[in-house]
Design goal:
It is a single chain. With 527 residues, the chain is an alpha/beta fold. It folds into three domains: 2-55 and 465-482 and 493-514, Urease, subunit C, domain 1, CATH 2.30.40.10; 57-285 and 383-459, Metal-dependent hydrolases (TIM Barrel), CATH 3.20.20; 291-380, no CATH class. Helix content is 33%, strand content 20%. The strands form four sheets. Strands 1, 2, 3, 4, 5, 18, 19, 20 and 21 form a nine-stranded mixed sheet that branches. The longest helix has 19 residues, at 254-272. The chain is globular. The protein starts with a strand and ends in a 12-residue tail after the last strand.
Length: 527
Amino acid sequence: MLDYLIKNAVVLDGTGKDRYAADIGIAGEHIKTIGHLEDVKAEEVIDATNMFVMPGIIDAVNHSDTHWTILEEPSQESLLRQGITTIIGGNCGSSLAPSIEIAALESIRKWADISQANINWKTLGEFLDELERHPLGVNFCTLVGHGTLKRNVFEDMSRKPTEEDVEKMNLLLNNALNEGAFGISFGLAFSQNVPAHQYEINTLVSVVEKNNGVAAFHMRDEGKNLLASIGEVIDITRTIGVSTEISHLKAIGRSAWERFPNALEILRSAKKEGLDINANVFPYERTGSLLFTLLPEWAKKGEREKILASFRNPQEREKILDGIRDLTLHFDRFTIASTLRKSGLIGKTLEEAAAILNMTPEETMVELLLINELTITIFGQTLQESNIETLLKEPFIHISSDGIGKSGDSSWYSLKENLIHPRSFGTVPRVLGRYVREKKIISWEKAIEKMTGAVADKFHIKKRGKIMKGYSADLVIFDPDKIIDKATYENPYQYPYGIERVFINGVTVVQKGIYRGALEGKVLRRS
């Protein structure tokens, strides 16, 4: 007796192969059988006529952990209702473990208010054990953040790490990999310190390579230095022989748009060379990033308090303002999305905020960073649609949300002051509805593979990401004629259309597009 029998489905199995018609039987947590199942009994029979069935989406770049929502809002409803069943945390150089020193949590301060954070773990294994004590809406696995490792070892982030420092980081990383981490992530653009040194990076990446893990990179520069930043990741991949993933690959600004074709050629050549390098993309023309990152490079170096002190010093402040002017930023293209403290400027561009405050845009930018202790996010209208479409076609590209999971009723969230990027509610249906069905940029089979089986293979996530006998029953039934995202930048708290049912580990968690309240996710450890 099966628990569920999905009849008359069109199966897209996550491998990229052609769709096929079949029935799917679920028993317990796993896919029991696939085929034309006649005279098979089940507790519930689901008629999937005119529907597609795909594996649960695996989100390669997710920030629910570093935004603390995996702990405060464990259902992760905004992810479930778009078909995401597994998330990879610990991205862009920051993770919630190891946290041997409390200063390790400083690496997430740029995204979350940690003033009230209460943790009862030190090692990564203890963190995963703690997560297992609490029900989760999604399956969760994690990388180890490079910035988190550094803050566990020394506090003065402005100095160059010694060989002893690097050896301590190596030990922490090796332990975390043995306790279940899937690799390491670097946030090279975020460091409020001197740039990470090559010896430091290569040594840590070597530990990952020996453990058959993945090294994920938020590159140093996605703008005018795009080519050099890609070259750095390729050099690391070639030198160490490690499997690498470039997180949310994009070209920011017109100068980078001009370099984008060359960037793709460099990556294609690396793949032809046989390097194990991939990248992922999110399907939106606006970035969701930190206002802090718009500062001149020299103004971002040092600890948080040092930077804030420079804003308060009249001479240094004027120098920073001059540096921002030299960048010739288009302030009308950056929208204030969230702040640490209420500003009354949410949804306004920096240009509009400047007019309201009767300041120059440069002064507004510095003043907002000072008031909010650097914790302020923005939407940047800096990407090109044609580049997104080109990336979606590339065989080495995965698709990720780069978002966070939210929970609760969407109408309640729409009343909150802060905005989040619509990708947190709409990535998957946007890809399938807009770029597959409407624009026909990519086939159903390939788009789904880029979000499921290909990601599972890259990160060595076993028995998930594909519809195969014996695999975990993480499945999504959706209407290919209706699936579409509804979330916007003005109102991101809107759930998509067309997702009919979502299973996690053999249990229905979304039915007729509505979240049922079940918390059936698991903590996944690298074996």
